[in-house]
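Exercise 3.2. Students should predict the tertiary structure of the chain below and write it as structure tokens, then compare their answer with the key that follows.

Predict this chain's 3D structure.
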Amino acid sequence: GKTGRGHGNLIVPAFAVGRTQEVLYALGDLMRRGLIRRDIEIYVDSPMAVAATEVTRRHQALTDIEARILAAWQAQDRRHRPRIRYTESVEDSVALNEVRGAIIVSASGMCDAGRVKHHLRHNLPRPESGVLITGFQAEGSLGRRLVNGARMVRIFGDEVMVRSRIYTIGGLSAHADQAALLGWLSNFTVPPQQTFVVHGEAETATGFAALIEEKLG
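Answer key:
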């Protein structure tokens, strides 16, 4: 939609290292292909994400061909560059409460800590705003409750109505699947005598532990 006072924001909870940079790449690529407006303002609100993005920018030669094509397109003409603003100070972050019609990328990725909680508190009650979930949300996390359709959540001790739209895309998830993890475990020269499954939900973790025992002894 157009920017302006009556328009909502899109809040993107994203891990500071890796996920935020993928999200920025995806947004830039959508602009290059004319699928979203080039003049939309994007805010990255996480000091760690700002630092990690700068590291990525300094080492562009190490990125894949798609990322280099996008960087070349952006370097060609200033008008091709997304309007990305990085907020580092708490004051800059608080000022985003007044922003309308923007995309705000902020950590943490599961909505349980960090600055993103402030953006959610301000935007969840607004039907014109949206929240874009970009990765796996662990059981018990605020992100998981939003994905599961909670109409009311507690943030900083306050009950917050969920009127905004919640979107979920799984394609950016960085979690290795069962086959990838088994492949990794199978390729040790000297396999570990004991493996601890410490991540994931109870049912999946127990099933995976049984599979390791069955396939790898």
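Discussion points: The first helix runs from residue 19 to 32. Strands lie at 10-13, 41-45, 83-87, 103-106, 130-133, 152-155, 158-161, 165-168.
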